Amino acid sequence: MIRADTVIDSRWVITVDESDTVLENHSIVVVADRIKDILPTPEASRKYNATEHVVLGGHALMPGLVNAHTHASMSLFRGVAEDLPLQPWLEQHIWPLEGKWVNREFIRDGALLAFAEAIMGGTTCMNDMYFFADEVGEVAEQSNMRVSLGMIALEFPTIWASSPDEYLDKGMALYHRFKDSDLVTTMLAPHAPYTVSNATFEKILKIADAYKLGIHMHVHETVQEVTDSLNQYGVRPIRRMKDLGLINQYLLAVHATQLLDEEIEMLAEAGSSIAHCPKSNLKLASGICPVSDLLARNVNVAIGTDGAASNNSLNMLEETRFAALLAKGCSGNSASVSVNEAIRMATINGARCLGIAHEAGSLEVGKLADITAMDLDVLQSQPLFSPTAQILHAATRNQVTDVWIGGNRVLNSGTLTTIDNSECLALAVKWQSRISNDN
Amino acid sequence: MIRADTVIDSRWVITVDESDTVLENHSIVVVADRIKDILPTPEASRKYNATEHVVLGGHALMPGLVNAHTHASMSLFRGVAEDLPLQPWLEQHIWPLEGKWVNREFIRDGALLAFAEAIMGGTTCMNDMYFFADEVGEVAEQSNMRVSLGMIALEFPTIWASSPDEYLDKGMALYHRFKDSDLVTTMLAPHAPYTVSNATFEKILKIADAYKLGIHMHVHETVQEVTDSLNQYGVRPIRRMKDLGLINQYLLAVHATQLLDEEIEMLAEAGSSIAHCPKSNLKLASGICPVSDLLARNVNVAIGTDGAASNNSLNMLEETRFAALLAKGCSGNSASVSVNEAIRMATINGARCLGIAHEAGSLEVGKLADITAMDLDVLQSQPLFSPTAQILHAATRNQVTDVWIGGNRVLNSGTLTTIDNSECLALAVKWQSRISNDN
Question: Do B57 and B70 lie in a common domain?
Answer without folding.
Answer: no
